[in-house]
From TrEMBL:
Origin superkingdom: Eukaryota
GO terms for MF: mRNA binding
GO cellular component term, pick one: cytoplasm
Protein name: Clustered mitochondria protein homolog
Single GO biological process annotation from the record: intracellular distribution of mitochondria
Name of the gene this protein is made from: LOC113472585
Listed transmembrane segments: none
UniProt cross-references to PANTHER family, sorted A to Z: CLUSTERED MITOCHONDRIA PROTEIN HOMOLOG (PTHR12601:SF6), EUKARYOTIC TRANSLATION INITIATION FACTOR 3 SUBUNIT EIF-3 (PTHR12601)
């Protein structure tokens, strides 16, 4: 199951590279949800997913959503 989370993460990064921002964010949020269910909130993969989500939001100028992730 965790391999599926990695696949979604990589697919999201490819989508972002092809300017499909909304699809990339949907995939990353889904991957984060699944990784949280599998590994728990304190797993390093969750931090990596949060970082990727934050970088995409920052790149497209969604500063309000970006700041809500900085807890």
């Amino acid at each position: 199951m965790f391999c599926f989370v990695c696949f979604q993460t990589h697919l999201a990064l490819y989508c972002f590279a092809n300017s499909q921002v909304s699809t990339a964010l949907k995939l990353l949020y889904r991957a984060r949800y699944l990784a949280t269910l599998i590994c728990g909130e304190n797993h390093p993969e969750i931090a990596l997913l949060d970082s990727n989500i934050s970088l995409i939001l920052h790149a497209v100028g969604e500063y309000v959503l970006f700041q809500s992730l900085e807890m």
